[in-house]
Automatic annotation (TrEMBL):
Protein name from the UniProt record: Prephenate dehydrogenase
Native organism: freshwater metagenome
Main EC class the enzyme belongs to: oxidoreductase
Enzyme Commission designation: 1.3.1.12
Keyword Ribosomal protein: no
One Pfam family it belongs to: PDH_N
Pathway named in the protein's UniProt entry: Amino-acid biosynthesis; L-tyrosine biosynthesis; (4-hydroxyphenyl)pyruvate from prephenate (NAD(+) route): step 1/1
UniProt entry tagged with the keyword Cytoplasm: no
GO terms of biological process kind: tyrosine biosynthetic process
């Protein structure tokens, strides 16, 4: 793979371009915004720009479509018609796109391999691009029975160059999974935020009472709104199925509360806690992980002090979260480390005036 073409140089397209150029791959790009193209080149995401998708398709070994979901199928067909040897995309919906390509271009669809990097950023657009964005992230590929083995191998090589971990699933299964773990959380966060602000005439009080739990759950409500209507409509059925499951769960919880069923509520919270902790990374050796809770003041440099302290002891922080106090003045820092390193970190924290508590993640 010597030359890669990118259509769309926003957050994901720009990150792909910057990462590939660091490996020595030549990257050409097209975007319908000429100013963004020039910015991408100045940021190091592109070696050069190309005036059209058709021109780009004829100049590359693989073409990556990093455009909104609603445009991907049309761009893929245009690229295949123009002779692109291999085409892939980064959209978060797969089955409708692949169905459209296989229906409209059955003789060329074997060159298209659907893809979806499970990576993002709090920052938006090209300015938020990061060449390290995909390192260690899961990158889903969704080949079909018509997919050419050589085309799949080229896309797999691309994923490897970006440092991502490959996961291969069928398109329909992908859409059902992301509906539950990505699209439903976005809808839940946005809806909760909308309900909260609509039900409180005094926004000042709401913000003052919005503690860590509310902030954590609604964090993704601040993501860029423009991409979500297309995603919701493209993955409509899978999202409706996920919403139905969630609504059933909410109704079940409501009944438990209405009935005063404390034992069943406790079991729900225990199951959820156990499942949530299972999402945390595990060590290669399978060693137990320890969560350490450290109260911290609200002052500059405190986070750097603690992480630098861990680094000086060669302690790897597997996961880190901060819960802010609703009253202000500080919060609680959650650090996840391996069991063999927890005591050393605990002693070091104590020596610098920080108290901590810890529990085994199981």
């Amino acid at each position: 793979m010597n030359t890669v073409g990118i259509v769309g140089v926003g957050l994901i397209g720009g990150s792909i371009g910057r990462a590939l150029r660091e490996t020595g791959v030549k990257v050409l790009g097209f975007d319908n915004n000429p100013e963004r193209l020039l910015e991408a080149q100045s940021l190091g995401a592109l070696d050069s720009t190309v005036p059209s998708v058709v021109d780009l398709a004829a100049m590359v070994d693989i073409l990556v479509i990093a455009a909104p979901v609603g445009f991907i199928a049309d761009i893929a067909i245009e690229s295949l018609d123009a002779g692109a040897p291999v085409v892939t995309d980064v959209g978060s919906v797969k089955a409708p796109i692949i169905d459209a390509i296989e229906s409209l271009r059955p003789d060329l669809a074997f060159k298209f391999v659907g893809g979806h990097p499970m990576a993002g950023s709090e920052r938006e657009g090209l300015a938020g691009s990061d060449p390290g964005l995909f390192i260690g992230a899961t990158w889903v590929l969704t080949p079909t029975p018509t997919t050419d083995v050589e085309s799949f191998s080229v896309v797999r090589e691309l994923v490897s160059k970006l440092g991502a971990q490959l996961l291969v699933v069928p398109p329909v299964e992908h859409d059902a999974l992301v509906a539950m773990v990505s699209h439903l959380p976005q809808l839940a966060a946005s809806t909760l935020m909308d309900v909260a602000v609509s039900s409180d005439d005094d926004q000042t009080n709401l913000l003052r009472l919005a503690a860590g739990g509310f902030r954590d759950m609604t964090r993704i409500a601040s993501s860029h709104p423009d991409i979500w209507p297309d995603i919701c409509l493209a993955n409509r059925q899978a999202i409706m199925n996920a919403l139905d499951e969630y609504a059933t769960g909410i109704a079940r919880v409501r009944k438990l509360i209405a009935d005063g069923n404390q034992p069943e509520l406790l079991e729900l919270f225990k199951r959820a806690r156990h499942a949530r902790r299972g999402l945390l990374p595990v060590t290669a050796s399978g060693e137990d992980m320890i969560e350490m809770l450290v109260p911290i003041p609200d002052r500059p440099g405190v986070l750097a002090e603690i992480t630098t302290l861990a680094g000086s002891l060669n302690i790897n922080i597997v996961d880190l979260q901060i819960s802010h106090s609703a009253e202000g003045g500080g919060g609680v820092l959650s650090l996840v480390v391996s069991a063999s390193q927890a005591s050393s970190l605990e002693s070091a924290l104590e020596s610098t005036g920080h108290t901590s508590s810890r529990s085994v993640i199981s």
